[in-house]
Amino acid sequence: MTGKPHSKQISAAIIGAGISGLSCATRLQKLGFEVEVYEKSRGVSGRMSTRNGDGWNADHGAQYFTARDPLFIEELNHWIESEAASIWHPRLKVFKQGQWHDSISSEIRYVGTPNMTSPGKFLARNLSIQLNQTINHITYKAGKWSLHSIEAGEIQKQFDWLVLALPAPQVLALTKQIDKAIEILVSDANMQGCWTVIVIPDKNLNIDFDAAFVNNKIISWVSRNNSKANRIGREVWTIHANPQWSQETIELDKDAAAELILDCAKKLGLDFGDPKISIHRWRYASGHINPVSDPILNQDLRLGFCGDWLRGGRVEGAWLSGYELASQIETFQK
Ligand SMILES: Cc1cc2nc3c(=O)[nH]c(=O)nc-3n(C[C@H](O)[C@H](O)[C@H](O)COP(=O)(O)OP(=O)(O)OC[C@H]3O[C@@H](n4cnc5c(N)ncnc54)[C@H](O)[C@@H]3O)c2cc1C
Q1: Residue nearest to atom 12 of ligand 1 (CA)
Q2: Is the CB–ligand 1 distance for residue 242 below 6 Å?
Q3: Nearest residue CA, atom 53 of ligand 1?
Q4: Is there an atom of ligand 1 within 6 Å of 197 CB?
Q5: From the CB of 144, is ligand 1 less than 6 Å away?
Q6: Is residue 64 part of a domain?
Q7: Which pTM value belongs to this model?
Q8: 6 falls within a domain
């Protein structure tokens, strides 16, 4: 693909600046579209996120990612060359049947550097992105899309194409009564929540692993953030609760959820002393539909969808779904 502009530039709005939206936006821009991204948060990267505190930071969404597809490997190589990502070699354990075991996994794992938002920031560097814009209404009229945001009201600009790069339930909120087929797909995604506790211990833990998969009713994952490349600041641990338990307790008070998670960690042998903590409730952390063969595109409305939930529920799939959707939009537009 050449990136040659169309004779009259076709415009596209992308809602969501997570890795799928950024992937779609960069590809469309390269293909000659005029692209504008709208994001409700104050920064890009969505669930590839890092929380910063006083003297510490920790990835509290995606912990690492893997790369199998050649297209994604090629992209990842750009991130690595630009120092936005690197390999992570944690000392990895598994807790199962009441005991700790060394992990026998030989998977190669990657992380953003210096934190998980870095690949997203790298993709965003040449894009026009409107932050702090929560799109709450979309309308299609006379071949053009109009958007409305909570913060700015009616957005002046109109667009030829609209891409929704959002978790499934948030897609549903915007497309109800616009696209029946997507309503059906979305309801299959069954996205589940996740409680995350970031723990800043009063002193460093003296344990022989950096990360662990935990098979337990409450906890599913723990990792020491500064075992990843280029992290600065104090020792910080991220604990993810198990998706099923998180979903069942998602409406709990944050402190009550944290207490249950930390009690459980203590029973597993993780004694954080008298730690500082920060807790995050992910309402839509994980979940996906059975793989669909093609990107989801409503050609009549010039409306496209991408996101992890359409391609396996992880970082690599999210990036691929955005890239493939952009290629399909280009093909349709020719
Ligand atoms: C706790 C947790 C742990 C995870 N662990 C891993 C892991 O170890 N490995 C892995 O590969 N994946 C992991 N994942 C999944 C991975 O983070 C996602 O697959 C990927 O980041 C999804 O990208 P996305 O672009 O599809 O969606 P998102 O990152 O969710 O992006 C959607 C964006 O849309 C924005 N938005 C939402 N609604 C609106 C609106 N109305 N208007 C404007 N903007 C809006 C959001 O703010 C967000 O930035 C994890 C996720 C979580 C939450």
Answers
A1: 314
A2: no
A3: 285
A4: no
A5: no
A6: yes
A7: 0.96
A8: no
**Rounded-to-integer distance, Cα 234 and Cα 232, Å:** 7
Q: Is 251 exposed, middle or buried (0-12, 13-18, 19+ CB in 10 A)?
A: exposed
Burial 59-90 (b: 16+ CB within 10 A, else e): bbbbbbbebeeeebeebbeebeeeebbbebeb
Q: Which domain holds residue 113?
A: 11-333
Q: Is residue 1 part of a domain?
A: no
At 309, list the tokens: 């939930």
Q: 140-196: per-residue pLDDT in tens?
A: 999 999 999 999 999 999 999 999 999 999 999 999 889 888 888 888 888 999 999
Tokens of 139: 């309308």
| Cβ–ligand 1 contact at 65 (below 6 Å) | yes
Number of folded domains that form the chain: 1
Query: What is the signed CA dihedral for 159, 160, 165, 167, rounded to 10 degrees?
Result: 90
Is 72 inside a domain boundary? yes
The verdict on the CB of residue 61 being under 6 Å from ligand 1 is yes
Ligand 1 atom 48 nearest Cα:
46
pLDDT in tens, 281-310: 999 999 888 877 677 899 999 999 999 999
Answer whether 232's CB lies under 8 Å from 114's CB: yes
Sign of CA dihedral 68, 70, 75, 79: positive
CATH code of the domain containing 229? 3.50.50.60
